[in-house]
Each structure stands twice: as C-alpha cells, then as structure tokens.
Amino acid sequence: MGYILKNQPSTAASARRRFAAFIALAGLVLTIAQIGYISRTGSALCLNSGCLVVENLVRLPPVFFNLAGAFFFLVIFIFTQLAKRNYGGDGFPSRAVGTLLLLAMAVEGVLLFFQMQISRAWCSYCLVIFACIFLLNLSLGWRQFMHGIMLLAAVITVSASLNYASSPDMSNSGRGSCGEIVRPNSAMQMRLYFSAACPHCEEVIASLDKDFSCQLGFYPLDRTPELRVPGLRQNPHYDTAINHALLRGLGLSEVPVLMTQGQGETRIITGKDAILAFFKRYCLASPPAAGQSPPANVPAAISPPAAAEEESCSGEQAAAPNAVIFDPLKNDSEESCQIDTTCSPPPATGPRR
Question: What DSSP character marks residue 165?
Fold first, then answer.
C-alpha cells in the first residue's frame, strides 16, 4: 500500500496534465473545424484580415498547416493521457511532450517573425494557436516554460538578422485590386497604390481619361468610394491589408506609388509629378505593340535627382535588388502623402463620387 501511494501522481501534476489535455483537445477541435471551413469555402476563417495577408504571402495552402496542426495536437493529447503516472517527469510520454512543445515554440517563432516583419499583419487565428502552444509549455512546469521562451526568443533574434527582401509579385493581382483599366494591346503591367485621404492620388486618378493606353490596376489602402475612370472594370471584393503589407515590405510609407513590370524588373515610381510624367510619356501616346518589349529605362524627366540617392522623403526604402525605386521629383510634401494620414483636405471635385 505504501508503494502504491508513493507512486501516485501528485495533485498538482494531475491538474497540469488535465489542463494540458484540455488545451490539446481544444487545439485539435479548432484545427479540424478550420480544415472543414477551408474545404467548404476555399478560405480560412479569421477574425481579421491578417489571415488573408499571411495566406497570400505563403506558398503552401492553409489546409496544409491546419492538417499539421491537427496531427500535432492529437499527438500531444494522446501523450498527455499516457503520462498519467509521471506527467512532467522522466517518463517517455512526458519527455516526448516536452520535446514536441519545444519544437512547436521554434516553429511559432518563425511564424511570429513572419507576421511582424514580412506580412506586417497579425493573423488572429495564428495567435490563438500560438496561445495554445504557449499554455501547453506552461503546463509542463517553469523549467519547460523558460526553455520554450528562450528558444522562441532565439529563433526570432536569428530571423531578424536575416534579409528576407524579395521583389514584389505582380502576378497575383486579384485580391488587392478594386478595379482595372484593361488594355489588351498594352505591353506593361502597372499598379497604382493610392489612398482616399491623399489629394495627390486624386490628381493622378483624375488625369486618366479615355486616351489612356496602358493597362492599370488600382490598389487602394483603404475602402474607397466607386472610382469614376473611363474604361474601369470595378471589383467590389478586395482587401486593402494586402496592399498595406506589400508597401510596408518595400519600406514605402507614402502614396501615390506606381509599380511597373517589364523585362524581369519591377520599377517603382513615387510622387505625383513623377507618375504623371511617366503616364504622359508612355500611356498618353500610342501603346507598344503586342509582344514588343516595354521601354528599358524610365525617362530622364522622372529620373531621381542626385540627392535622392541618399534618402527620399518617403524615408528608408528596402526594396529588393531587382526592384528599382524612383523617388519624387521634389523633396517636399507637394507630391505624396503619408500612409494612413490626411496631408490636406481633398479637392471638392474629383474622379470619385
């Protein structure tokens, strides 16, 4: 009888094991529900638009991550049930749970850094999963918890020391675009990033008329009233968080911004006057013939001044090597507006109603 009583798990260990089993079961149910929702609707269920931003920037489908998560929580739940005698001790189930949870903390460190520095948007569903793993580590005791925190911090620190810059991908243009001027014979793909609170953006959009010969997509940073642009095909279903994430990833903090794709190089033109000069030269004349390469160089009229090589009024810019940024013609506030701010009252009349 003394031997049996001596080898019974403590009350605290039993409580921690039951708590861990509950968290693991909750994580399993959550991931399975997400898999079912994705299978039914084709997109993940999330409380904010951050999930859509993250989903748009990763290569693997979201169902893959949820299948891996469901398997992980199932294994943790089984092992916590097997560790009834010595939960958090030296038994194999307890050691296996501890090792798996440390690996999970390392993976979460990568995902947290991705949301902080790459997507620049927080995924609420991802944070719930992280909370489950955080609590599971805590259930194994303070030693396991501190090891997990140190591993998490180490992964985030190492990730922050690496350069993840990449060229902006203009191939997937549907989710962030509120509309597009379609010109089948145009050899250029262009995007205009703008804000409803930016009068300089208003002037750029107001310059677009029926003689505009380039294909241009409109990528707003906020929900905007219907645009009144000749030949525009409206898209009422768009997500502005994706546009924010892309500009922030390039280190751009002001609008308007024009991106053009051609000959394997992405050219980024910032500032109202520079964009209008580009339109005047390439889009208000005869468009390039189909199959003809777009111009190799940005015209001298919109080339950056010598002083702009050091720093532009948009602040520090961290574009990829094959993404060339041309700064505003003037280093003042007459061409651009800071993102998420109203730099001056918008004009009374404009291209929107």
Answer: -
Whole-number Cα distances in Å, 100 to 25, 32, 89, 107: 16, 20, 15, 11
Retrieve residue 29's tokens: 């149910």
CA–CA distance, 207 with 314 (Å, rounded to integer): 23
CATH number of the domain enclosing 14 = 1.20.1440.130
**What tokens were used for 246?**
């892309």
Q: How many domains would you assign to the chain? A: 2
In a domain, 233, yes or no: yes
Residues near 87 by beta carbon (within 8 Å), at least 6 away in sequence: 9, 13, 14, 16, 17, 20, 80, 93, 94
315 Rama class: left (phi>0) / alpha (psi -120 to 50) / beta: left
CB 346 within 8 A of CB 202: yes
Higher pLDDT, 13 or 32: 32
Residues 307 and 219 in one domain: yes
CA torsion through residues 330, 335, 341, 347, sign: positive
Q: What is the pLDDT of residues 57-66, one digit of tens each?
A: 666 778 888 9
**pTM score over 0.70:** no
**Measured between alpha carbons, how far is 267 from 35 in angstroms, rounded to an integer?**
39
Q: DSSP E strands: which ranges in the chain?
A: 179-181, 189-194, 215-220, 232-234, 254-255, 257-262, 265-270, 323-326, 337-338
* Residue 300 belongs to some domain of the structure: yes
Q: Which residues, at least 6 apart from 78, have a Cβ–Cβ distance to it below 8 Å?
A: none
Same domain, 110 and 147: yes
256 preceded by a cis bond (ω within 30 of 0)? yes
Q: Are residues 138 and 265 in the same domain?
A: no
Domain extent for 188? 179-338
| C-alpha dihedral, 97 to 103 to 107 to 113, nearest 10° | 110
Query: What span, in angstroms and rounded, lies between the C-alpha atoms of 250 and 117?
Result: 11
Looking at residue 159, its pLDDT comes to 85
Exposure string of 91-107, with b = 16+ CB inside 10 Å and e = fewer, is: bebbebbbebbbebbeb
User: What is residue 236's predicted lDDT score, i.e. its pLDDT?
Assistant: 80
